[in-house]
Amino acid sequence: GSREQVTGIDDLPVRDELRGKSPYGAPQLDVPVRLNTNENPYPLPEALVERIAERVREAARNLNRYPDRDVVELRTELAKYLTKTGNHRVGVENVWAANGSNEVIQQLLQTFGGPGRTAIGFEPSYSMHALIARGTGTGWISGPRHEDFTIDLAAAQRWIAENKPDVVFITTPNNPTGNAVPPETVLALYEAAQTAKPSMVIVDEAYIEFSHGDSLLPLLEGRPNLVVSRTMSKAFGAAGLRLGYLAAHPAVVDAVQLVRLPYHLSAVTQATALAALEHTDTLLGYVEQLKGERDRLVGELRAIGYEVVESDANFVQFGRFEGEGGSHAAWQKILDRGVLVRDNGIPGWLRVSAGTPKENDAFLDAVRELLGFVG
Ligand code: PMP
């Protein structure tokens, strides 16, 4: 037959559910103060940079070989870190690692979701959950929250009972709103999910190290359908590393290996992550500083006159921006002052990541002017 010239995505035989869509990602703008992607503002300490170089040099000598497919040494160290910080004994058999928690979540949906299956999340929440669902052919159900962004437990239980999803996402602390989910709520949702199906419950703890409260790792005891997902992108200040991991029953670790690509975690990634874990104490020291800055942001934003959602993460959701253009106009005005924050498309609200004290001051100056509090 006749061959037309291909000019764009829609001329290709892409899957129907991808038509007309755009790739996920916040604008990467080159401005003085970037507080839009919940990164850790502190570069890695020089001693760690040296250690990474050392371990990567060693790994380089073996790059002619495939890396450890089962990632045993790194999973062992991650298990030790979780055991030390999580009030729960975690062994290597409970841990799995991949390229960012995004890949962990993708592997979980490839394993427990997929065509003919559905996942539910309570929105607004981390929008990649829905996008990874789409990418894996998993149906998506957008569950409810209260006006104050806490999970509406009664409604959530009803939705789970009625929709019988195969996977339930709970993000705690939640992104972009910052609030943590009480353990009782997680337990009640787990029970609802087991009664309805039973289904897998994924607790996304990407920001847990910044929380006032504890990790939900102890809930793993006796709950084989529960998964806790973690990342080195935030607390370890290593977003560029791409290392996410999960803790769960050993059967879950076995199951995700059915879909993981062989040698998915490069030898360079494994070496770098191991070096970073050697410096856990230093890196968690930065977390303490950031928690202080986060609490300062909450306090000062409230003092200026903004509404702020209680935050257990390294970012703060603030508002409300009513009227003409609402939050997007405010986002632009803050950007005009050299500060990039995040507009997650939640009407009336913006999100700011906790930066260094200087960056946070620049942000606070910008939002003070915005409200006309500066003469
Ligand atoms: N979960 C949540 C809630 C997040 O906010 C993020 C990063 N924005 C991730 C997972 C993914 O992080 P990564 O892939 O870098 O581990």
TrEMBL record:
<feature type="modified residue" description="N6-(pyridoxal phosphate)lysine">
    <location>
        <position position="234"/>
    </location>
</feature>
<dbReference type="GO" id="GO:0004400">
    <property type="term" value="F:histidinol-phosphate transaminase activity"/>
</dbReference>
<dbReference type="InterPro" id="IPR004839">
    <property type="entry name" value="Aminotransferase_I/II_large"/>
</dbReference>
<dbReference type="InterPro" id="IPR015422">
    <property type="entry name" value="PyrdxlP-dep_Trfase_small"/>
</dbReference>
<dbReference type="Pfam" id="PF00155">
    <property type="entry name" value="Aminotran_1_2"/>
</dbReference>
<comment type="subunit">
    <text>Homodimer.</text>
</comment>
<keyword id="KW-0032">Aminotransferase</keyword>
<keyword id="KW-0368">Histidine biosynthesis</keyword>
<feature type="domain" description="Aminotransferase class I/classII large">
    <location>
        <begin position="33"/>
        <end position="366"/>
    </location>
</feature>
<dbReference type="InterPro" id="IPR015424">
    <property type="entry name" value="PyrdxlP-dep_Trfase"/>
</dbReference>
<protein>
    <recommendedName>
        <fullName>Histidinol-phosphate aminotransferase</fullName>
        <ecNumber>2.6.1.9</ecNumber>
    </recommendedName>
</protein>
<dbReference type="InterPro" id="IPR001917">
    <property type="entry name" value="Aminotrans_II_pyridoxalP_BS"/>
</dbReference>
<keyword id="KW-0663">Pyridoxal phosphate</keyword>
<feature type="region of interest" description="Disordered">
    <location>
        <begin position="1"/>
        <end position="25"/>
    </location>
</feature>
<comment type="pathway">
    <text>Amino-acid biosynthesis; L-histidine biosynthesis; L-histidine from 5-phospho-alpha-D-ribose 1-diphosphate: step 7/9.</text>
</comment>
<comment type="similarity">
    <text>Belongs to the class-II pyridoxal-phosphate-dependent aminotransferase family. Histidinol-phosphate aminotransferase subfamily.</text>
</comment>
<keyword id="KW-0028">Amino-acid biosynthesis</keyword>
<dbReference type="InterPro" id="IPR005861">
    <property type="entry name" value="HisP_aminotrans"/>
</dbReference>
<dbReference type="InterPro" id="IPR015421">
    <property type="entry name" value="PyrdxlP-dep_Trfase_major"/>
</dbReference>
<keyword id="KW-0808">Transferase</keyword>
